[in-house]
What does this fold into?
Amino acid sequence: MIARITPPAWTRWVLPGIAAAILLGYPLVFGTVYTNIFIHFAIFAVFAASLNMLVSYTGLLSFGHALFFGGGAYATALALENIPGMGLFPAIFTGGLAGAAFALIVSPLLNRVRDTAFALLTLALGQLAYMACIKLRDITHGEDGVGGFPIPDLSIPGVVSVSMVPAQNFYYLAIVILGICLLLMWFLTKTPFGSIMIGIRDNPQRVDFLGFNIPLTKCLIFTLSGFFAGIAGSVYALFNNLVTPDGVFHIMTSFTPIMMVYVGGIGTFAGPIAGSGLMTIIEEIATRYTTQLVLFNGILLVLVVMFFRTGFVGLYLLLKQKLFEKESSR
Amino acid sequence: MDPMTFICVTQFVHGLAYGLLLFLVAAGLSMIFGMMDILNLAHAYIFMLAAYLGYTMTGLLNFWAALLLAPIGVALLGMLIERFMLRKIHPLGHIPELVLTIGIGLILLEFVKWIWGTQSLMLQPPEILSGLLSIGVFRYPVYRVFIIGFSIAVMILMGLLFYKTRFGTIVRAATADAGMVGALGINVPLVYTLFFGFGTWLAGLAGVVVAPFLSVFPGLADQIGFDAFVVVVLGGLGSMSGAFIAAILIGLLNSFGIQFLPTLAPLLTFGLMAVVLSIKPTGLLGERQ
Amino acid sequence: MTGILETRDLCHDFNGLKVLTHIQFSVQPGERHAIIGPNGAGKTTFFNLVTGVYTPASGRILFKDVDVTKAKPYRLTRMGLGRSFQITSIFQRQTPFQNIRLAILSKNRIRFNLFVRVDRMNAINEQTNEILQEIQLADEAHLPTSTLSYGKQRSLDLGMALATAPDLLLFDEPTAGMSRDESHSAVELIRKLTEGKTMVIVEHDMDVVFSLADRITVLHRGEILATGTPYEIQENDAVKKAYLGESEV
It folds into this structure.
């Protein structure tokens, strides 16, 4: 191990402290519109990070991740619509559980295929969910979706009760929940289980011969990924107070996080988060100048895949390295 | 004649026509996968682009000129995509390829919406192919019969190309062992490019022919494209005969499904695809995953 | 007397092409057993059957007196079987440390731990370093594996088999593709690492076989031609005929 000088303990709290201060002050400074944009970013950061667990850490490309996102969104919306007195956290947790349950149900199928066939199977399952959601009118209200359900207050009985309708209140809830999700997913990559995931990505045969049960391991990965996608969907449902098949189950819903993973940088944890941020910023700016946002995004994606395979994070690391080299050569 | 028989026969011919068209789209997709190990997710969007080009060219010139020129146009596009994009990222594995081709598909979709708008465009078949054909008591649109005849003619042409020409021999050899063919002094990358062009040309033909049949609209790629994926998966990735059987099957399933189970029809194809992929990932006749 | 590994009437074919017929094979605890035979004799197929890559067409496989004929590789590994690969099978994008650590996690039965940072599992990391010392990769422990020399990558492959602390080690041509010098030091390494352990080795190189094995089985056209001590095998007429008959070409 390389010996290094340890900086004083308090310095490691400086950056997180500044970040926390910015996050806390953000809605007060920027107002409702930008607060909503930030919530949108955070939802998709978690959604993309949950997809990234498969793409970057297990080496599987899912074209049907909307299944879990939509599953979570609908579960929360339907729970709030149909169960009187449903609490806020139980509603969100229901969304996560629904995403996890969907993933658990399809994982025996997903375990049978990999590579191109995996992408196709997830595409088929995602489309199946989209179609089923439109057709099962009795439950999902078809194309109209579920909307206008009550948004519960954040309440601790006898202590405090805060309405979640104002954007700024909802903002704090959203960033706490989504932030915890990102932290958990990040932590996951650092655990022994995370090492096994990466092993499966790089050489499944050897992982098998090391004594790990790959189908069972993948099953847990899918379930966890589905859980976090479900939470993202759940927060989406609360945020919009409306879920529709086109909004949460459409193929574009599966496709958006793939774009974010690639634009942000595949193979890294920060990639999808940066990707979500970038795509959100691009959307905000581009819609002022063009109505062809999706066209623009498509071109961006193709350019990234062709020329910047490491995405934004890769570009950042490259720049940092370049600057660092310049300094050291002085 | 009782109406049930009439409906059945009508739906059968309609399903056959749709199935054969599906085969033209799926054949290109499947043969490119079989030979080059690339699943081109943009394939269906190229097909749709051909339908739009066919629409515009029919307006400017006539249907037959469109049937000649539009497929050549999209074949050139396909060759450019293969030569300058796919070839560059092929060594990186399947995931970037899938993402790249879906990205290209997205661009094509948005491009088409931008240029032609989102409304459905109706195209009349040429004079000679319009009207109804009477066989006994049946009266049937001539154009659908033309689709069946035309698709079969293209299939025969494909057969001749593969089994009677030098290009076909090289293609078959390269599918089995590209390295060996390259060692024999044949420019395998060029063969790949031409082959990719051929696959997209087939999709282009289907695109122009489909225009008077189903009309032209931005959802066309999703509708036919997904069905084509189901066909390729069901038939086994890379298997021609499997794709043919599956295409006819899906065509009929679609046609009868819409007639008798209108709510479930869209679910049927995806359900079938999911079932086949999870039970036998190699499909009906395919060998590799 | 039953061995640690036994096969009874083991047969296998690929689409009707017979690869192995009625193999009766037995390894005693503590034995260092080599399987030799000309190309196409069925050695690698035999290995793949025994380690659960293929399920045999007929016959039984017993490991520690348990029927493992249909067991999956991960089960066999958990029961104490370790194998290396003819074509190096390691995690190229990871460091040797991370490679070995994965094996150590398995050995400690840590498979679904989502609650601790693996960097902070001191016992695991210590055991990993011990293995890296043993396979002489301590200096390269934190370099990308893909930058290591071929010989070192082979050592890592061996190390991973070893790190799960198996009771029976199967080495599939451990010196395949190595230069003379590399091969020599690899043999020394194997000798040292497998001191007192039960081992089955498939090998082409006769020098390697005779310096490592105390029993040899000769496979020829899918059948066992002979089994015995190195001396007995050297003197066996059938073996001479099988080998000389083919090397005359």
In short: The CA atoms of residues 133 and 139 of chain B lie 5 Å apart.
